[in-house]
């Protein structure tokens, strides 16, 4: 299996991924999918949603093998958390 390398700086990657989520995806998913993961290809704007990062990214890569994937957890500013407290917007 070939490891894919990022084609963009982290700053661009994050900015583009968040922009796509906020403008195109969030209005469609926010209401009834709290806590699910959205995997976004920052090149095409295509996305997949699931409770698992792996399943969402595998579905996206099946359609777009060269996808540059940015993850967003619906209703949260973080994908993962450490410790016993939660962080919400």
What is the SS-derived class?
alpha+beta
Number of helical regions: 2
Biggest β-sheet: strands ordered side by side in the sheet: 2-1-3
Order of helices and strands: HEEHE
Q: Tally the structural domains.
A: 1
Categorize the overall geometry.
globular
User: What percent of residues are in strands?
Assistant: 15-25%
Low-confidence stretches are none
| Overall radius of gyration | 13 Å
Overall pLDDT score: 87
Main sheet record: 3 strands, antiparallel
Strand runs, count? 3
Question: Helix share of residues?
Answer: 25-40%
Distance between the termini: 38 Å
Brief sketch in words of this structure:
This protein has 89 residues and is of the alpha+beta class.
Provide structural commentary.
It is a single chain. The chain has 89 residues and is α+β, with helices and mostly antiparallel strands. The protein has one domain (10-73). It contains two helices and three strands. A three-stranded antiparallel sheet has the order 2-1-3. It is globular, with a radius of gyration of 13 Å. 19% of the residues are buried. The model has no long low-confidence stretch (mean pLDDT 87).
């Amino acid at each position: 299996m070939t490891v894919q390398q990022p084609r963009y700086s982290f700053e661009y990657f994050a900015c583009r991924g968040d922009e796509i989520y906020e403008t195109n995806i969030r209005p469609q998913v926010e209401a009834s999918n709290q806590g699910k993961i959205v995997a976004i290809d920052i090149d095409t704007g295509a996305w997949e949603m699931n409770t698992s990062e792996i399943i969402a990214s595998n579905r996206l890569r099946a359609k777009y093998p060269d996808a540059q994937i940015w993850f967003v957890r619906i209703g949260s500013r973080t994908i993962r958390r450490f410790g016993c407290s939660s962080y919400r917007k």
